[in-house]
């Protein structure tokens, strides 16, 4: 079952456009949502949250359209946005009194426990809070009403490494649960290496990867070898190649071909998520050769 499904979603605003975007977010997993800045990740999250209207296509959350039952669906979502749009003159106490009525299952005790855990003063005005404190407050709000789906838009953006790691540990400890789904958008790819099971990667308005990370890593490999070995046929088997003084480095789905041809003269390693994004951003993903984008929705628990 999928927590989120987008089918042929399109959106146009001035010169920016998204066309026929389709991907799924499997229920019970942490899904990383990546792509270069300006590619439309935040816009897609706003579309999912029904903050803006798509020009076409369909978005389903828990097999329902948001407009069919917005109150019930939004009660199931914990939303963490990179900016907390609240009156900075308010205290946390005032914020809770404003927010709590929107959620059927708001739990003050849980909220207070998170405030204590995060060292956030209940009567402190948020204008005095650091970026890290504001993010922790946003997380505390999202975690305090028994949500089933957590949508996190750049939750570690602007945080120093220590606070960033702390926020990731919070997400990992609190949300790694097969009954909870996490959809996390970030440009800090190393964050996903720690917590993500599944990956959606968008490039130039197209979904390039939509699958389990283990399946993606097993499909792509980094090959290093002697540049003199490369001819036009081998180059066609590469998603990206760059040359240096010692030879070449390539991303490919056909590492077995290189191994059979050159044996120990080539080095083959698994890419990290960051490697994949860097190389696929620079190069191409030839759908016709590879049988389409990686998109495996089978055997989802």
Automatic annotation (TrEMBL):
Residue ranges of domain ABC transporter in the record: 1-229
Taxonomic path: Bacteria, Bacillati, Bacillota, Bacilli, Bacillales
Coiled-coil positions: none
Pfam families to which the protein is assigned, alphabetical: ABC_tran
Cross-referenced InterPro entries = AAA+_ATPase, ABC_transporter-like_ATP-bd, ABC_Transporter_VariousFunc, P-loop_NTPase
Tell me the PANTHER family matching this sequence.
Answer: ABC TRANSPORTER ATP-BINDING COMPONENT, ABC TRANSPORTER ATP-BINDING PROTEIN ALBC-RELATED
Q: Which organism is it from?
A: Staphylococcus hsinchuensis
> Which keywords has UniProt assigned to this entry?
ATP-binding, Nucleotide-binding, Transport
Query: NCBIfam families in the record, alphabetically?
Result: PSM_export_PmtA (NF047565)
Keyword Nucleotide-binding on this protein?
Answer: yes
SMART domains referenced in this protein's UniProt entry, alphabetically: AAA
Molecular function terms in GO for this entry? ATP binding
PROSITE patterns, alphabetized: ABC_TRANSPORTER_2
Q: What is this protein called?
A: ABC transporter ATP-binding protein
**Where are its TM segments located?**
none
């Amino acid at each position: 079952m999928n927590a989120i499904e987008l089918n042929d979603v399109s959106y146009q605003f001035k010169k920016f456009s998204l066309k026929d975007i389709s991907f799924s977010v499997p229920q019970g997993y942490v899904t990383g949502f990546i792509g270069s800045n300006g590619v439309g990740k935040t816009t897609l999250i706003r579309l999912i949250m029904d903050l803006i209207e798509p020009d076409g296509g369909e978005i389903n959350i828990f097999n329902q359209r948001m407009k069919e039952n917005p109150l019930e669906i939004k009660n199931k979502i914990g939303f963490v946005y990179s900016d907390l749009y609240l009156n900075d003159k308010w205290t946390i106490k005032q914020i809770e009194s404003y927010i709590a009525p929107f959620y059927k299952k708001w739990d003050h005790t849980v909220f207070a426990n998170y405030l204590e855990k995060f060292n956030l003063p209940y009567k402190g005005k948020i204008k005095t809070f650091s970026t890290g404190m504001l993010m922790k407050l946003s997380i505390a709000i999202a975690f305090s009403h028994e949500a089933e789906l957590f949508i996190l838009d750049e939750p570690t953006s602007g945080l120093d490494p220590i606070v960033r790691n702390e926020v990731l540990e919070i997400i990992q400890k609190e949300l790694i649960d097969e009954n909870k789904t996490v959809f996390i958008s970030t440009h800090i790819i190393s964050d996903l290496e720690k917590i993500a099971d599944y990956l959606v990667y968008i490039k130039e308005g197209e979904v390039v990867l939509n699958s389990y990370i283990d399946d993606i890593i097993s499909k792509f490999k980094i090959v290093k070898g002697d540049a003199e070995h490369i001819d036009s046929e081998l180059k066609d088997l590469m998603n990206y190649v760059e040359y240096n003084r010692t030879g070449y480095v390539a991303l490919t789905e056909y590492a077995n071909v290189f191994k059979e041809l050159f044996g120990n003269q080539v080095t083959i390693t698994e890419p990290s998520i960051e490697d994949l994004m860097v190389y696929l951003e620079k190069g191409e993903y030839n759908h016709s050769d590879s049988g389409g984008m990686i998109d495996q929705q089978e055997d989802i628990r």
